Amino acid sequence: MDYATLMQLLASTVRLGTPLLLACLAGLYSERSGIFDIGLEGKMLAAAMAAGAVAAMSGSAWAGLFAGIGASLIFAALHGVASITFRGNQLISGVALNFLASGMTVLIAQALFGQGGRTPPLEGAARFNPINLPFVDAVRDVPLIGPLYAEVISGHSILVYAAMAFVPLTWWILYRTRFGLRLRAVGENPAAVDTAGVSVVGLRYAAVAITGVLCGIAGAYMATALQAGFGREMTAGRGYIALAALIFAKWRPWQALGATMLFGFFQALALRPDVVESVVGRKVPVSMLDALPYILTVLVLAGFVGKAIPPRAGGEPYVKER
Amino acid sequence: MTKLPNWADVVLVPLVSLLLAAIIAALVLLGIGQSPSEALAIMVKGAFGSASGWGYTLYYTTSFIFTGLGVIVAFHAGLFNIGGEGQAQMGGLGVALVCLALPWPHWTVALLAASIGAAAFGAAWAAVPAYLQAKRGSHIVITTIMFNYIAAALIVYMLVDVLRPPGQMDPASARFPKGASLPALSDMPLLRGFFAKVNADGSPKLNAAGEQLYSNVPANVTLFIALAACVIVWFLLWRTRLGFQIRAFGKSEKASQYAGISPVKITMIAMLISGGLSGMMAVNNVMGAAERLLQNSAEGAGFIGIAVALMGRNHPLGVLLAALLFGFLYQGGAALGLNTTIPLEMRIVVQGLVILFTGALDQMVRMLLVWVFSFGKKGVA
């Protein structure tokens, strides 16, 4: 594998890692507040469909983005009502919402466009197109650093850079603000937060709403930047891989960046059987490469995480004593 | 909050949940410009309106009984097995390998061997997530989901590169030998009459030689194994020491550990039984109906097991009834796909709604009923 190929691989790592990163940070807020969310997948899917549909109808990627966030927020609100207000089983609620999203997206896309559950292909301003960072052409020919800057760092859509910016932002919110302190506290010991006079329900709804917004961006990115339009089941388990990355990262933002980029790299490898063959030295079946991200996720969960301790109150509905 | 009477908790809560799910589903149909009442009529007619409709409904029911039972055994141990889909697909691989291995002399022998193969492959596919949960603390929900994706890829590999007969284009195994062909319900002496074909005027439809013709249905002898499995699972969970240990472990891991129940052992055993039951589903669809292994053979039945288990309130009898309900939804949904422009995905929407209302919003339904019941009491006083 030569340097240029490596750069290509890394560039596609960033592109494929971005939805994972957004979904992973989304899950981080929810789970830190004590609400398990395996419905990241469904929220991304709903957002992807809404973004694809609205972008196709309006011709504006930004309109699509807001529609995606809106759709994802609806699902987040349902999850909040089920798991916070009615103290239902959070895992089951997530599974239910994933199925609901899986069916509803096809139903609505079919009713709107009649193209077998897809949205029409997007082009021009209906997509988030790559942005060239300053001095790209000047730096491109510099050895080593040039291609790295031009291919891997520059040339992504604005949502990629936004996702990267969310990492320090999340760190700052989580560890340097009052909201962040309370958010972490409510996931560990909601009774203490309640005693301090802060609303457990309010904090958890806020966290679930942030989860909705971030999943919305992730889904919109899938349909309007990574690909040109929505296709059925287009998220293909990314919500679950993001969850695995979250566990791998032990619910911390910078580690989430590392974990999601690692999984993004696995996905990038799966798209390049030729590179894998040249490195391994023999022909590898494509289906094995498809399974690679999932197998590696299991390996990561099994071996290298060490002891991943989730927020203590995670999954437990909070019952206020009267 | 006052408690509901027991009968209301067992009967009324699932029924009201179902009603709510149905109302939302109707609203969804209205939203995409379809008529809910027309859709329901087509579904009922498609699923129960004819003998062949029944044949398909019972075929789906059989599959859902297996996957539903698989989910409840894990549920009783406090484990949420979302991997039924992958386990059912692997069960299919087990069935295919057994059926293709020998020229089976009689279907009873083949059925026994294939059942063991299906259960063994399904259980093996559940064993890894179970071991990782028990020994390494990897969350079983995530690992079983990952194993669904890995199973799908593995089946594609097996069908494309290993099991596909030379010269065949589509990724599927060879047809199973004649001796491995299971009798359908319409081949059985006692049940056969039910599937007799009739002419429009009600007279029996005969072939050229004057013999009675019967509809071919996919429902097969596996239905009786599924019914037996309900009884066996009930006996296992409520009448054996192991069942007690599973339920105790599910209720309180700490208390059961204090009572000398090994968490590793129970996690492994419960998941092996759960995966085995999900794998057994393949006897119905792969051996009983398709008679060869196809890609994506489970067709989502593994996931429906979750809805069936929740709807059936974690009891084998409930699973049986819920599986029949989902059999109706599936066959009725297929009739919708044939006769209307409503996409097949409507079935997934209904499935999601049922899981949402019976599994996650059951507390809401209970509160609602308590509120309604309190009216009755005030009226008396």
Topology readout:
The complex is a heterodimer of chains A (322) and B (381).
Chain A: H1 3-32, H2 40-58, H3 61-85, H4 90-113, H5 136-139, H6 145-153, H7 158-176, H8 178-188, H9 190-195, H10 200-226, H11 238-248, H12 253-270, H13 273-280, H14 286-304
Helix pairs in contact in A: 1-6, 1-7, 1-10, 1-11, 1-12, 2-3, 2-4, 2-10, 2-11, 3-4, 3-10, 7-8, 7-12, 8-10, 11-12, 11-14, 12-14
Chain B: H1 6-31, H2 36-48, H3 51-76, H4 84-101, H5 107-136, H6 140-163, H7 222-239, H8 241-251, H9 253-258, H10 263-290, H11 301-311, H12 316-339, H13 346-360, H14 362-380
Plain-language structure description:
- The complex is a heterodimer of chains A (322) and B (381).
- Chain A is 71% helix and 0% strand.
- Chain A is mainly alpha-helical and 322 residues long.
- Chain A has one domain (3-236).
- In chain A, helix 1 (3-32) crosses helix 11 (238-248) and helix 11 packs parallel to helix 14.
- Chain A is globular, with a radius of gyration of 20 Å.
- Chain B contains 14 helices and no strands.
- Chain B has helices at residues 6-31, 36-48, 51-76, 84-101, 107-136, 140-163, 222-239, 241-251, 253-258, 263-290, 301-311, 316-339, 346-360, 362-380.
- In chain B, helix 3 (51-76) packs antiparallel against helix 10 (263-290) and helix 7 (222-239) runs antiparallel to helix 12.
- Chain B has a domain at 71-229 and 242-312.
- The two termini of chain B are 19 Å apart.
- With 381 residues, chain B is mostly helical.
- At the A-B interface, helix 3, helix 4, helix 11 and helix 14 of A face helix 5, helix 6, helix 11, helix 13 and helix 14 of B.
Radius of gyration of chain B: 22 Å
Category by helix and strand content of chain B: mainly alpha
Number of strands of chain A: 0
Radius of gyration of chain A: 20 Å
Which pair of protein chains has the largest interface, and what are the residue counts? A-B, 50 and 48 residues
Give the number of DSSP strands of chain B: 0
What is the number of helical segments of chain B per DSSP (H or I, 4+ residues)? 14
Largest beta-sheet details of chain B: none
The helix/strand series of chain B, from N terminus to C terminus, equals HHHHHHHHHHHHHH
Low-confidence stretches of chain B: none
Q: Tell me about the biggest sheet of chain A?
A: none
**Portion of residues within helices of chain B:** over 70%
Mean of pLDDT of chain B: 89
* Percentage of residues in strands of chain A: under 5%
Query: How many separate structural domains of chain A?
Result: 1
- Structural class by SSE content of chain A: mainly alpha
- Beta-strand residue percentage of chain B: under 5%
The CA-CA distance between the termini of chain A, in Å, is: 66 Å
Shape call of chain B: globular
The first-to-last residue Cα distance of chain B is 19 Å
Treating each run of at least 4 consecutive H or I residues as one helix, how many helices of chain A?
14
